[in-house]
Amino acid sequence: MAVNYRVTAEELIRNTGARVTNARIEILASLLKAEGALTHSEIENRLSPASGIDRVTVYRVLDWLTTQDLAHKISGDDRVWRFNAAGNANSHNHAHFKCMCCQNIICLDDLGSGYTPVLPAGFTPQSMDLTVKGLCAECSPANKAHDPRKHSHLNGRRGVTARR
Predict the structure, then answer these.
(1) Tens of pLDDT along 107-158?
(2) Are 90 and 105 contacting, i.e. CB atoms less than 8 angstroms apart?
């Protein structure tokens, strides 16, 4: 059975007790549907032109979604924020995996018992940003069908994030 991301998004927003708007539904549905974290412009490009959602509204909705813990933002090497739908109450305390070839970023929700670094006396952790970098299954040298040239958005620059 296919998932209706729009219905799921509407339900999640309604559960916050806040106003349910088309922009909030469309943007959260885009994040729920995505297979990895998306930049602001990637989200904007996924929205239907008929939705009438402009760039400023996308920024405001993403900010609202993060404050409501419906989405979280991930800092990229290129200083561009990426957004992902929050999967659980501990959405701020998980790691991410970034493929250094295709630049996809995914959440790593299963870290076993979790990881908390030993902090100096008197320090209290509030959130953690951990990114594991490597090659995803599609870009792995073991995948003989992979062609790194298909990532033309990198323009020959390794380690520069250009998407998700």
Answers:
(1) 776 665 556 678 899 998 877 777 888 898 888 888 888 777 776 544 444 4
(2) no
- Yes or no: say if 98 and 61 are a contact pair by the CB < 8 Å rule: no
Torsion of CA 19, 4, 46, 155, to 10 degrees: 130
For the chain, report the end-to-end CA distance as a whole number of angstroms: 27
Strand residues in the chain grouped as ranges (E): 38-39, 71-75, 81-85, 95-99, 105-108, 130-134
pLDDT at 93: 62
Q: Is 83 helix (H, G, I), strand (E, B) or coil?
A: strand
> How many residues are listed for the chain in this entry?
164
Long-range contacts of 152-157 (CB under 8 A, 24+ apart): 153/103, 154/103
